[in-house]
């Protein structure tokens, strides 16, 4: 699908299957989310521009590549995105973090905002929005809307598991925001859960059900 990258690396796929399993315990689930996020981060940053910097090795001076431009921003959608942001920070510790507090109204399935905090100069940075599940797309669209209102113009969206309707909705609302996912399922159930999916990512991560 245009604008969607499924990261098909065997390690990512293996870990996603373990995430799906209903008998995976909370602590393992949380560790897997973090590990997959690190691997997805590697892919979503693959084309970052680099520039040469002078470095002195123990043997000689040379010019070697470093990442150019301002530091990245990871923007987890609370609460389930937090653990993904930690996995990405393992790989890019100097990144900034924006927090986006949105929850899905269980009846309307629409996103409701309760918290929003970004670095002041986020308009000049690449912002990587993270949420484990792209289901209906309502929350993702609301997060991207809000970041655009704050001036962000360069964004990418990363999730563990996408559903086709959510991908189509996010791509239709924000065609300038490419998506990375470890997998995509075809359907949602009547409660907006991905089928077969992996259940409620936040509850499984934090043991709240
Ligand atoms: N959020 C989840 O945690 N799981 C789904 O299947 C859909 C949305």
Task: Give a description of the structure.
The structure is a single chain. The chain is of the alpha/beta class. Helix content is 33%, strand content 31%. The chain has six helices and 13 strands. It has helices at residues 10-20, 26-44, 81-91, 138-149, 164-173, 201-206, and strands at 4-6, 50-56, 61-67, 73-78, 96-97, 99-104, 111-117, 127-130, 133-134, 155-163, 179-185, 187-188, 194-195. Strands 1, 4, 5, 6, 7, 8, 9, 10 and 11 form a nine-stranded mixed sheet that branches. The chain has a two-stranded antiparallel ribbon with strand order 2-3. β6 (99-104) and β7 (111-117) form a beta hairpin. α1 packs antiparallel against α2 and α2 crosses α3 (81-91). The mean pLDDT is 96. Uracil binds at residues 133, 135, 192-194, 197, 200-202.
Give the helix level as a range of percent: 25-40%
Distance between the termini: 34 Å
Q: Tell me which ligands are bound.
A: uracil
How many domains? 1
- Proper CATH architecture: 3-Layer(aba) Sandwich
Q: And the CATH topology?
A: Rossmann fold
User: Whole-number average pLDDT?
Assistant: 96
Please outline the major beta sheet.
9 strands, mixed
């Amino acid at each position: 699908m245009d604008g969607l990258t499924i990261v098909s690396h065997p390690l990512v796929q293996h870990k996603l299957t373990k995430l799906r399993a209903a008998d995976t315990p909370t602590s393992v689930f949380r560790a897997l989310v973090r590990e997959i996020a690190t691997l997805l981060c590697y892919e979503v940053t693959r084309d970052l521009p680099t520039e040469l910097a002078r470095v002195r090795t123990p043997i000689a001076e040379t010019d070697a590549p470093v990442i150019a431009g301002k530091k990245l921003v990871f923007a987890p959608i609370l609460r389930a995105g937090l653990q993904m942001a930690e996995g990405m920070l393992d790989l890019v510790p100097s990144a900034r973090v924006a927090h986006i507090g949105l929850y899905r109204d269980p009846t309307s399935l629409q996103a409701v905002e309760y918290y929003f905090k970004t670095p002041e100069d986020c308009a000049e940075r690449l912002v990587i929005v993270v949420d484990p599940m792209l289901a209906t797309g309502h929350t993702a669209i609301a997060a991207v809307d809000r970041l655009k209102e704050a001036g962000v113009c360069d964004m990418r969206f990363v999730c563990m598991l996408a559903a086709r309707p959510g991908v189509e909705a996010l791509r239709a609302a924000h065609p300038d925001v490419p998506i990375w996912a470890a997998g995509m399922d075809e359907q949602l159930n009547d409660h907006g859960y991905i089928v077969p999916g992996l259940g409620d990512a936040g509850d499984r991560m934090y043991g709240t059900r």
